[in-house]
Write a structure and sequence with these properties.
Blueprint (H helix, E strand, L loop, with lengths): L1 E4 L6 H17 L5 E4 L2 H10 L6 E4 L16 H6 L4 E4 L2 H5 L5 H13 L3 E6 L3 H5 L3 H13 L9 E5 L13 H19 L5 E4 L5 H8 L7 E3 L6 H11 L2
Parallel strand pairs: 1-2, 1-8, 2-3, 3-4, 4-5, 5-6, 6-7
Helix pairs in contact: 1-2, 1-10, 7-8, 9-10
Length: 244
């Protein structure tokens, strides 16, 4: 999978044009699942315009409640009713900027799966946690909070490892660091719930010049790309580098 998280970027006309270009990538690279996660206001328009394209259009977040007095929020059930199939849950910016707890994130996972959405669940450590030698412990705790809730259908959830210190900083984990953590995640998933076959994505300043080496690692099954997904040239280059 190659997934692009657009975050809070691109106006509506820009979003539609960029989505069309991404759909062309999906047609070109049949072996890749190409997914985009636009800003909430653009999702429905893109989904409507590109309904027949080989392109996954997903939501960047969902609320854990089915409905209610939660101004500005969108529930998993509402996303499902709009034809959306995928959702990001637990992104580091939701945890760090918006203060989402592991309990809230777990509730969102339950709500998303109840609605029938495919989940990309994000885990990752801060720089101080890595320097303290606690990176694997922190990621393990994040996984333990949700593994009992993971669906029996293992294809319904992907795990994205995004070291917080490598998001939007220009820094990226070396292929060896990324592979070590992905291997740890796969072993942890196998031990906790017997679901080590889940697809594992890497996110953290993925760029055209490091994508091929990262993609060559045994336990990296794709990418969750931030800034580099906003320019079709760089996103296309990453797609080319990651295609089997």
């Amino acid at each position: 999978m190659l997934a692009g998280n657009w975050k809070m970027n691109l106006a509506l006309d820009e979003s539609l044009a960029h989505a069309e270009a991404c759909a062309q990538l999906g047609a070109k690279h049949a072996s890749l699942d190409i997914a985009i996660f636009p800003s909430a206001f653009a999702v429905a328009a893109i989904q409507h315009k590109l309904a027949d394209a080989k392109l996954i259009v997903g939501a960047q977040n969902c609320h854990q409640a089915e409905s209610g007095a939660f101004t500005g929020e969108v529930s998993a059930q509402q996303w499902k009713s709009a034809g959306i199939t995928h959702v990001l849950i637990g992104h580091s910016e939701r945890r760090e900027v918006f203060g989402e707890s592991l309990d809230q994130i777990a509730d969102k996972l339950v709500s998303a799966r109840k609605a029938g959405l495919h989940v990309i669940f994000c885990v990752g450590e801060k720089i101080e946690e890595r320097k303290a030698g606690r990176a694997e412990v922190v990621v393990g705790e994040q996984l333990a909070a949700i593994t009992s809730l993971m669906p029996e259908d293992r294809s319904a959830i992907d795990i994205a490892y995004e070291p917080v210190w490598a998001i939007g900083t220009g820094e990226s984990a070396t292929p060896e660091i990324a592979e070590d953590m992905h291997r740890h995640i796969r072993r942890a998933l196998t031990a906790l719930r017997g679901c080590g076959e889940a697809r594992l994505l890497y996110g953290g300043s993925v760029k055209p010049d490091n994508a091929a080496e990262l993609a060559a690692q045994e336990n990296i099954d794709g990418f969750l790309v931030g800034g580099a997904s906003l320019k079709i040239e760089s996103f296309a280059a990453i797609a080319q580098a990651s295609a089997p």
